[in-house]
Amino acid sequence: MTAPTNLPIIRFSTSWELYEKIIRNIYRYPDDSVDLEKEDFNARRMISDWLNYEDEVVRGICSITGLEFRKNIIDICIAPKVISTSRPIIIGVDGYDRRFVDEVMFQLIIQLLMDNTSVPYTYDVIEDWIDIFSDSLYEDEAYFVPAFALLKALCLDILNEPDRLVRITKRCGGLFRGDEKVAWEYVDTHDYKEIINTLQRLYQAIEEEYDF
Predict the structure, then answer these.
(1) Among 29, 30, 82, 167, fewest CB within 10 Å belongs to which?
(2) Percent of the chain with pLDDT over 70
């Protein structure tokens, strides 16, 4: 696998409709619980923060893995008061948050690992991650190891921002669920570069098996 020559466009949109339909109708938040005009302003600020990193991050994660995004355009939806998801990529926000860049990085890593030009559309690569790392981890914990290893490499080897990595990992004791915390502990106690080498060998084997 070689470094990519074509990089995707990262396209952001804001979806206050998600707030309207999900939060208000299901969880019955009061009508004035979110100032959508202010949230729109905060979203523009966070997107501006991200644009300072976009090219370096996208090139970096492709270079580290040797993978290429399958999609030419990757859509990321920003919505207040919702839980972030990876498929589709929805990032939940609550006002301006400098961790927005961290979340975009994580979601793009997941996107690259799951949907790239080295695996068939119908191939479930997550099962391979679980097989590789489940000797010492439960399935839900093993799922996060590849992304966290790449996130560590990105912070240390591409962005040269160890403080960012510290901030991300500190969240393990707070906002992260138990499986994410255990996955970070695994990455911190193993050689993240060797984890990435293992992933590279995996994707190379898949590519050769399916003659991509």
Answers:
(1) 30
(2) 85
Task: Tell me the pLDDT band of 109, cut-offs 50, 70 and 90.
Answer: very high
Q: Which helix (H) or strand (E) holds 76?
A: strand 73-80
- 9 has which bridge partners? 73
C-alpha 210/C-alpha 120 separation (Å) is 8
DSSP letter string, 29-81: --TTSS-HHHHHHHHHHHHHHHHTTHHHHHHHHHHHHT--BS-SEEEEEEEET
pLDDT tens digits, 47-96: 999 999 999 999 999 999 999 999 999 999 998 777 888 888 999 888 88
Take residue 96 and report the two structure tokens written for it.
């301006």
Q: What does the alpha-carbon distance between residue 114 and residue 89 come to, in Å, rounded to a whole number? A: 13
What pTM was computed for the model?
0.89
Q: Could you tell me what percentage of the chain is helix, strand and coil, using 3-state DSSP and rounding each to the nearest 5?
A: 60, 10, 30
